[in-house]
Design goal:
94 residues; 3 helices
């Protein structure tokens, strides 16, 4: 991370890190909010999966250099990510 002495955010990696931290907090909240309440647990689990999907997308784009990858690779990654996430949500909510 590139920072000056005052700790300002300077690059996209810093922003991505902050977004990932916020998404982690959201997933934590999903998990804690619906413990032991029937259908609310399934909704919370689906929320955690969707939050994880978003996080995997951010990591792939920002830290695994998909932003500079060929378009076909970006689309293949997006299709894989959406397919796996949809399958997990169907299994959870099934």
């Amino acid at each position: 991370m590139t920072r000056d002495l005052r700790g300002r955010i300077h690059d996209a990696n810093d922003v991505a890190w902050l977004v990932l931290m916020a998404a982690t907090a959201l997933a934590w909240w999903w998990g804690r909010a619906a413990q032991g309440r029937g259908d609310a647990v399934r909704i919370a689990m689906a929320g955690v999966v969707l939050t994880a999907t978003f996080k995997v997308g951010v990591v792939g784009y920002q830290f695994m250099e998909l932003k500079t990858a060929p378009r076909w690779l970006q689309l293949a990654f997006a299709a894989w990510l959406l397919g796996i996430s949809a399958a997990l949500v169907v299994i959870i909510c099934g």
